[in-house]
Amino acid sequence: MLLLWLLIVPLLAGLLAFLFRKRSLMELANLTAFAIEFCLAAALAAQVLRNGPVSLWNGFFYADALSALVILLSAFVALACSIYAVGYFRDDEESGVFQEIQESSGRAAIDKLREYYALAPIFICSMILVALANNLGILWIAVEGTTLASVFLVMFYGRETSLEAAWKYAIIASVGLSLALFGTILTYYSAFRLLGTETLASLNWSVLAGNAANFDKPTMRLAFILILLGFGTKAGIAPMHTWKPDAYSEAPIPAAALLATGVLNCAVYALMRFYVLSSKCLGPQFASHLLVIFGLLSIGVAVPFILVQKNFRRLLAYSSIDHSGIMVLALGFGGPLGILGMLLHMTFHSITKPLLFFCAGNVQQHLNTDLFRKARGGLIHSMPLTGAAFLLATLAVTGSPPFSLFQSEFTILRSAFSAGYFVVAIIFIGFLVTIFSGFLVHISSLVLGADPDHSPPKSCRWKSASIVGLAAIVIVIGFWLPSPLYRLIQGAAGIVMGG
Amino acid sequence: MRLPFFPTPDLGNTIITLMAAMVLVLQIATVGQRWLISNIRIFAVQSMLLAAIAGIVAYFNHATHIYYVAFLTLVLKGGLVPWLLERLAKRIGIRREIEPLINVPLSILIAGGLTLLGYYVAESFYHPEETSVRAALGHNTLAVAIALFLIGFFTMLNRRKALTQVMGLLSLENGLFLAAISLTYGMPLIVELGIFFDVLVAVLILGILVFRIREAFDSMDVSKLRKLRG
Amino acid sequence: MIETLVKSGMQLVLILLIAPFLSGMIKTLKARLQTRRGSDVFQVYRDIFKLLRKGMVIPETASWIFSAAPYIVFVTAILVGLMIPMTTTHAPLSLFGGVLAVVYLLALGRFFLALGGLDTGSPFGGMGSSREMTISAIAEPAMMLAIFTVALAANSTNLSEMAKVAVSQSWKFLAPSQMLAFAALFIVLIAETGRIPVDNPDTHLELTMIHEAMILEYSGPYLALIEWGASIKQLVLMTLLVNTFFPFGLSSDWTARGLALGFLFYIAKLLVAGCLIALIETSNAKLRFFRVPELLMIAFILGSLALISTFLFI
Amino acid sequence: MVGVSFAISVACYLTGAIACLASSRRPALARYICCTAALAGAGFGALAAVLGILRGTPVRFSVSSGIPLFAYSFSYDALAGFFNLALAILAGAVSIYSFSYLKEFEGKRNIGFFGFLFHALLLSLTITFTAADAFLFLMAWEVMALASYGLVTYYHEDEETRRAGLLYIIMSHIDLGCLLLGFALLSQASGSTEFASFHAAAVQMSNGRQVAAFMLFFLGFGMKSGIIPFHIWLPAAHPVAPSNISALLSGIVIKAGIYGMARIFLDSLGGVPSWAGLLVLIVGVVSAVLGVLYALMEHDLKRLLAYHSIENIGIILMGLGAALIFRVEGHPQLAAVALIAAIFHTLNHAIFKCLLFLGAGSVLHSTGTRNMEELGGLIRPMPVTAFCFLIGAVAISGLPPLNGFVSEWLTYQSLLAGFGVTGGLTRILFPLAGSMLALTGALAAACFVKAFAITFLALPRGTESRHIHESPRPMLIGMGLLTAACVALGLGATGFLRAFDPLTEQLLGQRVGSNLISGKGLVLSAGMPHGGTVSTAIIALGLLILAAPAALLVWMAAQRFATRRGPSWDCGLPGLSAENEYTATAFSKPLRMIFSALYQPRREIQAVFDVSPYYPKEIRFESEIEPTFEKRLYAPLQEFIVRVSTKMRAIQAGSIHAYLLYIFVTLILLLFFGARP
């Protein structure tokens, strides 16, 4: 029943938004829903930790440690985003952004708000569904659902560039997901030849995983290639990453943060499910090589764009490409350390990344630009909290100790050596160092420097609360990870390892 | 009945293979086609053929749920979607020719190459020692499905207009449909329904987007959407 | 303890007395070689004595550093003198400082003298200090290499140990490494003591001075201390040269006979070295300042060759 | 006991950091907390260090982090003790100094944040020196870099400062990358990140991996220490930080690299091959000589000191390199002596470099400039600062009887001993390295004559009009402590050297303390029979005794004639002014000419004539030397990276067709190559 509630709560929040006519009611509904959602996710995690996998409707919904982890992370990000969104959209309203929209498209501010408060919960609902679906077909549908919900969020502001971004996002994601669907069909086929229609009727992962060793191998090969490309597109792995900078820089900040963490997690989650099947069927070697190549390529592609970047929101997008590359790379390295490192990375990334987005959002809203050139540096003078948090988040996201992403990257590096990928490891570290340099050069030039005499922004409690809260969590998990969370991650790693 | 030039002994499979080949021919025809409206109509025919394939599969394998699939395909892809697209095309007033990025003869050549690639890939699925019907059928239709997919993809690459890219996407999904139907005799029904629903929503959303792009840019040429760089 | 003090006292007297003599002797010799009459060998004593009885003028700009420098120069020179075997192989204070201490104590004196030169605020002082520090710096590696060559042969940087080893195998000075090291150290000696062709101790022409420019503002007892200190330094370096490379006559104990014999040999060796310097000073012109590094480079190469030959020809 | 003092010290730093941040709204309180907490931490740190050094056997303890992979485990042994001792001395002196130094920040800058970073730096250094686990070590290592970055860019409004800070943090991160790889290599071999497990595993590693591990660690630690050619960040970053921080950066932060090398090369890797030791030695020589040569050309007081840090790191590496070679050649006794030379010089350099930076800070504090060409004559208004700086200058120049001399003397002795124990041509390298050490020492002396004389002596060069005053008492006490340490470690070296026994025993299995001391505990000997001996105490005593009669002579003369004060000789043209003084640039000119091949000096003289070409109205003189490494190595590299990146941006040119094409091509390639087994 818990599983069902996990889906119903956000759906309800989305539907309620259609009913309300007042902003505060929508905000309230949204906040309450995600607070409840987070509690539900925590409860699910606790239950999974205690009693093992939970399933519903004859295994239609199925949650093991891996799902619970992804759901917990999605719920966490959703909660953080919903808190931030309150401040963000109020600011938008006050600064007259909605007015402009109204003038150009004739849509009232409250309609715009409703658009967000209705779509975001649906978007999150489909993310939760991704993790809950046992049936691989449903999994695919849910992933496609995230795309459909988020296309409107990307074109939220209705500018020409938003349309452009939305179009590119929609087309590329659709093509990608078609590949994933093809892969899913072939997976089904490779199992079908062994098991026949009857046992397979539901295409359930929990059934498939038990029999994967006997699947038709050539089909599985082809299927995994297509799956990698397909869900890889959604995860933003190079060379399928091209939609990311556009979509991330055009979507409203809370939606962009959801895209960068929630959607990324879902896509990687889907990849992991198929990775388990593939490595059981074909042995880990085949998937590993492919994943390592694509992972390294993604990190490498992000490097030049991070080094030479004019727009700080696009910078964040490339960081996301970099991180999806790291996760895929870690999956490719495999072994207990690699998988554990990958899941740790996913967890830490989901916690850290929203902070970076929120800081960028504050800066963008305050200065009304997302270009470094126009921001003119020295933000620490007019917005000390955001500035400091921005630097902190930059360091955290680039994997610098003492922040938690360093722990996962160190683990991943160790797994690379264990798996014998020496050269890859060296290139990997080289890329990371370069990315750190590029990031810090840009962000420090934004935050530090002489005071350019911007007027100080109006302080917003919602924004500050989300930033301070996240920053506190980011700092704490750098030094200490709650042991239940670790056990959950360990359990998830066990599942991906195929145990 | 046994036709000498098809290796499959089973009539249903023979017909399926034949129809799949026709679908492929239609797909290649799309590549060479210059008119948007004809493109939409070819898509409709193609979808109907697929619906027929689904019907044959359902009949020969006594799989009732595939009848639903066949029906849905016929209605949605053969009727509703082409109708919607045609309306949209008329509403935004596209009458002119499609201007492909690569000229027609070369495009067709490439489409041929992609078909070959499809066969090359599918060859590894051909197990001559396995004399069962399914194996041979799988080999052939998989090749066609891959070819359909690749050619659809290529069409998307080759077209400038937003709407034509949507067309490419749709024909690409027809390839998937063929694979799903003929390889595994249909996915579980719920999955199929979900996929149909998704396709429909996708077409709607893309349609809205096409409309908005047309409004904002006074053009449907997506190759002009190049503001976001670097 | 007492013994060390007595020995130190004896050597101290020796140093204080011989040093001006050596300077005077070279001056006289030079004059004779240049067919001048020149002053007699005791003129330097008279100069020092006279300066010690004069009043002083201290530049207005100078601080206590200016006043401290003469003491440090003088005292370091003497202390170094006590670490070097002169008439016997056993120098009184050699346990407390070997050849490295000698080099670095002299550097300490130079350090303060250069500070004193700059403390006056006069451009001459600055120029002198700059040049002095430059030349000593580039002389240093050559000196060290030459010293190392000897030290490696003796397996010690302790000067008494080195002298003992040298006496016990006195034929060794003919070895190529010793010859080369000697040549290197001799060039360094010329540079360090401010002799032609590196520096001209007799000139006060503005642009050619090095050492003299540095001490231009010193007068009276301070100047006496500096001059005396400089002559002691010269003595010390020459002693180092002659006693390490030509150790004959060094007494191995502190008996009266040994000391007397050692003393005679020592004076004789100093005389020979002094003649050599006088000869060189007479027969050479002062080099341009920027040619000096080339000379010191030669010394460095000689030192390196010395080292290499140590292990090639042993 | 060690553990408790260590824990209290860590707790002091930790609470100090948080309390400072919390009190940032109240500057005076923040300053007070910052300095008091640091002083307390330093006190307990020193106690822990002394106890840890004397104890001999390591003390271990560990704290859980929630992830079993990463444990916060510490090991306090003699090596940790020495570096912690240096840290504690410096931290103590700097925090006393900062009582007054930070006062000028009040109301202008955020002292609370400064205090937070300051404590974070001290904390991370303490942990770096005691970490027993690669993970904890790397954490502390990078926190140290980040805290230093924050402190270097404390004056972030200034463009130069920001650039310097970025250069610093980027180089730091590169070295972190090297260390990460190195530790990952070792962890993979041993299956654990504990330092204790590395030794056994490293010995079993294949030759290629050993080489890789050595090179990675050498690069990583070397960059942190500022070895040439990875030094360029050091002279950029150290001068722009607040001076009390520069003192810590040059004093102890760069020593973390030395600590790492000692820890990894001698302990974890279990000895490195002979060529590796030789590499360390050669890099040491190059860094020492080039470091001091570049220092000579500086007339920014703090940059000059920063270059001297490179030089001294070079000297330390000479000792360390010798130790590594001796160890592998089977002479652990000699290795122990060389190691003592290196570690002792590390400690000494920490102390006198900190002293000098604090002195420079005082000068900056009261005159507002770091440019020596604008200073002069400060010995009169600031006599105590001048005295402390002078002692520091004598010490760093390696002149007897202070501490710099002792450690350089030990280094010489080790280098000389190297001639006898190695074969072939490499043996020549030892005495040659020794001669280069001599060159370095002499050049350093020249440089500090310049630094001290131009800054403190003669006439002021344009700062007369400013109100120059002696520093407040806490600053003087801070410097005074370090001055006393210089003298004490110099004169009392023999008393101190026995403390190295636990260290050498632990790393090399040798106790050589008793060999190094003879002659009733006053004489330092080279640790081998008939080797060299020296006694700084006796030298100091001798200098004092001998100075007495000389003073008597002068006093007697002064009784007869009054000592007069008069103007300096002005060539008969009255009016000698500060403009006639020798400048820092002029002082170093002979060396600039002699080493012109290195400096590639460029100079430009422009004369403006009024009427006659013989009487120029004004002459403008410009001179600069070529920053070879920056210009020839780093600038082209940076340019290359930026150019390639800019070209690569064509990938994302906005065309959706191109984007689809990427996917299409990838798909086709994968289908073609991957789909069939």
How would you sum up this structure, described in words?
- Chain B is built from 7 helices and no strands.
- Chain B is mainly alpha-helical and 230 residues long.
- By secondary structure, chain C is mainly alpha-helical.
- Chain C has one domain.
- Helix content of chain C is 70%, strand content 1%.
- Chain C is built from 11 helices and 1 strand; from the N terminus they run H-H-E-H-H-H-H-H-H-H-H-H.
- Chain C is globular.
- The N and C termini of chain C lie far apart (39 Å).
- Chain D is mostly helical and 677 residues long.
- Chain D has 5 domains: 1-132; 155-269; 271-552; 592-626, no CATH class; 634-674.
- Helices cover 70% and strands 6% of the residues of chain D.
- Chain D has helices at residues 2-22, 27-55, 78-101, 111-130, 134-152, 159-190, 195-204, 207-225, 233-240, 243-253, 255-268, 274-296, 301-328, 332-367, 383-396, 403-421, 426-456, 473-491, 493-497, 501-508, 513-516, 536-560, 584-587, 589-594, 596-599, 628-648, 656-674; strands at 59-64, 71-76, 517-518, 523-525, 533-534, 564-566, 602-609, 616-624.
- The mean pLDDT of chain D is 90.
- Chains in contact: A-B, A-D, B-D, C-D.
- At the C-D interface, strand 1, helix 3, helix 4, helix 5 and helix 9 of C face helix 16, helix 17, strand 5, helix 22 and strand 6 of D.
- Strand 1 of chain C pairs parallel with strand 6 (564-566) of chain D.
Overview in brief:
The complex is a heterotetramer of chains A (499), B (230), C (314) and D (677). By secondary structure, chain B is an all-alpha fold.
Name its key features:
heterotetramer; C: 314 residues; mainly alpha; D: 677 residues; 5 domains; two-stranded antiparallel sheet; 27 helices
Strand and helix map with partners:
The complex is a heterotetramer of chains A (499), B (230), C (314) and D (677).
Chain A: H1 2-19, H2 23-51, E1 54-56, E2 61-63, H3 65-94, H4 97-105, H5 109-132, H6 136-154, H7 160-200, H8 205-211, H9 217-235, H10 243-250, H11 253-282, H12 284-307, H13 312-333, H14 335-367, H15 372-375, H16 379-382, H17 384-397, H18 404-418, H19 422-447, H20 461-479, H21 483-497
Helix pairs in contact in A: 1-2, 1-5, 2-3, 2-5, 2-21, 3-5, 3-11, 3-14, 3-20, 3-21, 5-6, 5-11, 6-7, 6-11, 7-9, 7-10, 9-11, 9-12, 10-11, 10-13, 11-12, 11-13, 11-14, 12-13, 12-19, 13-14, 13-18, 14-17, 14-18, 14-20, 14-21, 17-19, 17-20, 18-20
Chain C: H1 2-33, H2 43-52, E1 57-59, H3 64-82, H4 99-119, H5 123-154, H6 159-168, H7 176-192, H8 211-214, H9 220-245, H10 256-283, H11 292-313
Helix pairs in contact in C: 1-9, 1-10, 2-9, 3-4, 3-9, 4-5, 5-6, 5-7, 5-11, 7-9, 7-11, 9-10
Chain D: H1 2-22, H2 27-55, E1 59-64, E2 71-76, H3 78-101, H4 111-130, H5 134-152, H6 159-190, H7 195-204, H8 207-225, H9 233-240, H10 243-253, H11 255-268, H12 274-296, H13 301-328, H14 332-367, H15 383-396, H16 403-421, H17 426-456, H18 473-491, H19 493-497, H20 501-508, H21 513-516, E3 517-518, E4 523-525, E5 533-534, H22 536-560, E6 564-566, H23 584-587, H24 589-594, H25 596-599, E7 602-609, E8 616-624, H26 628-648, H27 656-674
Antiparallel strand pairs in D: 1-2, 3-4, 4-5, 7-8
Helix pairs in contact in D: 1-2, 1-4, 2-3, 2-4, 3-4, 3-10, 3-14, 3-18, 4-5, 5-6, 5-10, 6-7, 6-8, 6-9, 8-11, 9-13, 10-13, 10-14, 11-13, 12-13, 12-17, 13-14, 13-16, 13-17, 14-15, 14-16, 14-18, 15-17, 15-18, 16-17, 16-18
